[in-house]
Amino acid sequence: MANQVIMPKLGMAMVEGTVIAWKKKAGDTVKKGEGIVDISSEKIEMEVESPGDGVLLRILVPEGSVVPYGTVLGSVGGPGELAEEALAVESSPAAVAAQGESAAAILAAEPAVDAPREPAFAQAGRDGIKISPVARKMADEAGLDVSQITGTGPQGRITKEDVELMLRERGGLPAGKAAEAATGQADTVAVRAVSAASTGGPASTPDASLQADAQSIERIPVTGMRKVIAERMQASLQQSAQLTMTMHADVTALLKLRESLSQESQRRYQVKLSVTDLIARATVLALMEHKQMNSAFLGSHIEQYGAVHLGMAVALEKGLVVPVIRHAEQKTLVQLAQAIKAASERARLNQLAPEEMKGSTFTISNLGNFGVESFTPVLNPPEAGILGVGAAKAVPAFVGEELVRQQLLPLSLTFDHRVLDGAPAAAFLACIKRHLEEAYSLLL
Description:
By secondary structure, the protein is of the alpha+beta class. The protein has 3 domains: 3-108, CATH 2.40.50.100; 123-231, Irregular (Dihydrolipoamide Transferase); 241-443, Chloramphenicol acetyltransferase-like domain (Chloramphenicol Acetyltransferase, 2-Layer Sandwich). The chain is 32% helix and 23% strand. The chain is built from 12 helices and 21 strands. Helix 3 runs parallel beside helix 4 and helix 6 (190-199) packs parallel to helix 8 (224-238). The longest helix is centred in the middle third of the chain and has 18 residues, at 252-269. Mean pLDDT is 80; it is low at 83-124 and 174-204.
């Protein structure tokens, strides 16, 4: 009997997932436990393994599609098993309708988070041609005869990309129509997504001079992690009153303290203290002294938190994640360093659960390792503040009448002016600076 390949639920809050890429084609031999399809949900990406030995009989959900968890993505079985039935099921409107009803039932049982997208299944339509719903809509909008389009999807189905190719061959995509046809669907046009992220509106037709050199253009779908980051950063800038202020902290003594403590902390606790750990400790102490910054603007009211759940931004190859160190105010310097190291390693191995990236009350983003001197961080909503950290730089400075060498660390605080004003925000940043310059305060 064939085994179904199911869209898994990655965390309690997951509603839908994206099919990133199929590693196998229909008819390929697979082994139980072998990765056959990559999927993602918000900032989590993972590989779905084959449920058994055999061949990949069918692929029901094409790459780029967004479907509810629990959706059947495909099936694996013995060679020849259910081959004819697989094709029949794929092209059966009744089966597709049943799949949609199943997906709707799954969503109905879950609390609404965002409006779910309609599953982008390919199906045989009114003319017997297998074509995805978004491709059908785009073709109808443009007045194309779908029988003249060559399908490149599984079993020859027509995809959105096939329609776009036909439109380009006939003089380019009609302004707005093709992009609007894809609105809310799984395989949103990358050009439209980028334009919407920057302007908040539908995309315009790409400049003709760019399209003239179309062979050199790589089209990258905005899905998974990149899509979440784009949506949240745009929303952050549109829905808050952000202001950034900067200071420099003299971390000469701090770097000496770190050097003297690192060997012992490595020996006793198997963790080497980093500058980030010390900055995190200083930030936590400052948040406990200035609780107005440890807040969130929630429309009708402001929530001020007694606990510090510290978000630590971690750069990955495909984007950015922010694991959360919960109750950071209860941790010693070494315990905080251990938690940050463990969370960062799990992030880089793509092992974080969605719950581990939610509920932060303040975030730190350190780009000093990349040589960045200073930058303007964007709020992680609904938090009231985020600290940006640049690279420390040795500079000459006068202390009284004496010229000395100092290591200055640039600090950039972005805060929500709806929650607090410039003076209390400056006092908070000055508190971080004081703790960094009075390095031994971090041990108390």
